[in-house]
Structures are given as C-alpha cells and as structure tokens.
Structure prediction request, 189 residues.
Amino acid sequence: MTVLQNEIAVLDCGGVGYKLNIPASTFAALSSKLKKEALLYTHLALKEDAADLYGFATEEELELFRKLISVSGIGPKGAGAILSVLTIEEFIRACADGDYKAIARAPGVGNKTAQRVILELKDKVANGLPVTSDIPGVSGGANASQVIDTLTLYGFSREQIRDAMRSVSPSLPLEEMIAETLRILASKR
Prediction:
C-alpha cells in the first residue's frame, strides 16, 4: 500500500497498482503503514466511462459510504468528502440534531443536499452503525475489531468469533487475543 496524497492510495496486487480514493480518516489510518500490508474495505463504483475504487479503514466507514451514496444527489465523491470532514460519530450526531451545516462543510455538498442526507438517513443511522468494537460482553476496542476481521479470513462467522471473544481478556496484546480466540474456536469445532 502506498499513499500518494490525502485522497489517493495505490493498492499493489501482484505488481499491478490500483488507485483507491480514500477519505481523510483512512489516510490517517494508513499513514503509519506506508509501504506495509494494510487491510482496506473497498467499494467499486461503476460509471459509463470509468470504474473507480474507494477504500476505507473500517467496515463501518464502508457501510456509511454505501448509505450516503444511496441518497439522491450524493455520489461517491460527495460521500467521500463527507467522510473526510466528519467522523462516523459526528455524522450520526449531525443527523440526530438536524445539523445540516456540519454535513454541508464537505466540499461539493450544499445546504439542500445536506438537508436531504439528514432526511433520508436520519432513521437509518438513529441507533448508530454496527461497530464491531462495541460488542456486548466483549471489550478490547480496536483490537476486538481486528481480531474479528482476521479470524473471518479463516472461515469463522462474526457471531462465532464474538462468542469466543467473550472469554478472552481485552488486556492481551492483539496477537495473543487472536491466538486465544482461535484456540477457543478450534476447541468448539
């Protein structure tokens, strides 16, 4: 993964580089992983004349991006701009408070479009987006999310992993949390 600038990263797949459009939050998450492996969640936006890839540091960002592009008048660039100026929590709060001016701070998003975003998404984000690190009975913050993301690659469901993580100490280092959770999952097979 190479970050070229605030809004673009290049994903190297077997020597072929793919341009990913990324919001500022993903840029911040990737800045410490320059020239290292990184996990990104992607969305392919197809247009008549182009195929654009968008990358996100978390599944929650990807989910909010997809909700945003479902709003009439918000395309992938507008959704990315909103995610660059507001965190997920700030966006949810803006929707709950009807604060269209916060959303309109995004480049290319005017007041009327911001009001439409609130109107169409207020109920869809009222209870927040599912955040994998806020799992009832499971603590561990960002590590919990990384454990889940890693172990799903081994074919375990998110629910299986969450159940196993309830028995794992959140104070363990990430690698030990993964190993302990995997041990618990393997014993249940």
The longest strand covers residues 8-13. The beta strands are 2-5, 8-13, 16-21, 41-46, 51-56. The chain has three domains: 2-56, 60-121, 141-187.
